[in-house]
Amino acid sequence: MSSNDGVNYESSPVAETAIDGTEYRIDAGKAGTAICVSTRPAGSWDWSFVCEARWDGSELRSKELERSVRLQLSRALTSAVQEA
Q1: DSSP code for 14
Q2: Contact criterion met (CB below 8 Å) for 53 and 61
Q3: Is 55 helix (H, G, I), strand (E, B) or coil?
Q4: Distance between CA 41 and CA 30 in Å, rounded?
């Protein structure tokens, strides 16, 4: 997936968090087999698809995201899974 074609921004995300003035949104993608990561500047309405990532149950994996961002997104996703 190279665009937001598979992301329904009208539905609730799996997880959402803000990192350094950027809001990140994690959604299920490709029939639930991947994670879609999108961003928007804080206070903005429009999400932009960033990449697909893989979730191994404890860590989000993606070459497109910086390690520090992946770690923070992993924590947000772990928290969302535990709350579900």
Answers
A1: S
A2: yes
A3: strand
A4: 25
- Cβ pair 68, 18 in contact under 8 A: no
Element (H, E) at 56: none
36/7 Cα distance (integer angstroms): 7
* pLDDT tens, position by position, 2-21: 445 578 899 999 999 999 99
SS3 assignment, position 6:
helix
Cβ count within 10 A of residue 15:
23
Can you give the length of the chain in residues?
84
Asked if residues 25 and 38 have their Cβ atoms less than 8 Å apart, the reply is: yes
As given in the structure block, the two tokens for residue 65 are 């995201």
Residue range 39-63, pLDDT digits in tens? 999 989 999 999 999 998 889 999 9
